[in-house]
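Margin note from the TA: students keep mixing up input and output lines. Inputs are the sequences; the output is the structure of the whole complex. Example:
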Amino acid sequence: MRTGITPAEALQIVLEHAPLLGAETIAVADARGRVLAAGVRSNRRLPPSDNSAMDGFAVRSEDLVSASADHPVALEVIYEIPAGGSSEQALRAGEAARVLTGAPIPPGSDAVVRQEDTTRDGDRVKIFVSPEPRTHIRDAGEDVDLGDQVLDPGAVVGPAEIGMLASLGRSVVAVHQRPRVAILSGGDELVEPDGDTSGGRIVSSNSYSIAAQCLEVGAEPIYLGIARDTPDDIEKRLRAGLRADVLVSSAGVSVGDRDYVRGVLDKLGCSLLFWGVEMKPGYPLAFGRFEAGDGPLVFGLPGNPVSAMVTFEQFVRPALRKMAGRQSLFRPTVRARLAERLQKQVGRLHFVRVDLERDGDEIIARSTGNQGSGVLRSMLLARALLIFPAEASELREGDTATVQILDEDFLAAPTPPFS
Ligand code: AMP
Ligand code: MG
């Protein structure tokens, strides 16, 4: 087991061990945010046949060579084709067919004239324009041709993908499984939110923030409850999580007298790959996996609420995205200018909770205040985490630094992109 490694080394180890999950078949309507496990080929042409892009009249362009606003040409309307209708009867010289948008173009016709360029009189129509061949005709297969590879494996399913899958007649689709994340909290001081907080007890908020972080990344949280600080209770509950893809334990992985989680993991066959990452908050982070290769990835997150959330962000979240098949694993980052001086000791990378504000083209970052690893308020106010590099001891007011955007609404435009 390694200890005292950098966050970059820790992330590399985590991602190396995070497996791509297998496939499952689900309803297309439920697939938003999932990742395709297989490519999708088209079994049809879209649109299926040449069809009208307008409400108007299907014509033979050669009949209208002389038509103009001053000298309209009259044609006989021999039938009408609604969207979804069709006709086998070919147009002959001097004939037109009434067509509605989406209607298949009848045989013999090679253009559509918009209704606006005509006047109707019983079963005749006067046409005031001379269309080029193919005018207002959407070609069969212009969107998708038979056999086209329309979606590649690894595509993230969004509204357009869902619409396309539906257009191709798919009601189900193969996607990577959502990681199932078993969440354990541990500590004699912890109670559920409606529990008795007398005698110095506190609510196990980590269970809730971590479950929410899982949901946000599209993973499925499974709550294992609060383990008492005894090896037996910890073991019993950890065992209940062994079938999950990932096991996240918050607290109890530190070096305190009652930190039994590491010992229990060892007993269950999980070997830690690292413990202790040179970062703040979040030093006492552990990561392991089951030797036999059949158990979940195990993250032992620090118990302090901010440490738990920040370490989840930096290590668990990218692992879950990778397991679910995502190619892009990390939050967006931008450069921001510091509104104030920040200081720390050289050695550990600090994730400083900052608020962001726009100033013209620049982004200004300001500390959210008390950066204690138990001060959950600092996460509440944080729109981003500022990366204060390990080797630096000072960032001056006006310096720029990389910030990792947590609140992606910050990237939302304040006004519409048109006026
Ligand atoms: P530990 O890692 O057990 O030493 O816990 C470190 C700190 O985090 C202690 O102040 C704990 O009370 C707190 N803590 C541990 N687990 C949780 C939790 N599930 N929710 C909120 N705070 C916690
Ligand atoms: Mg504890």
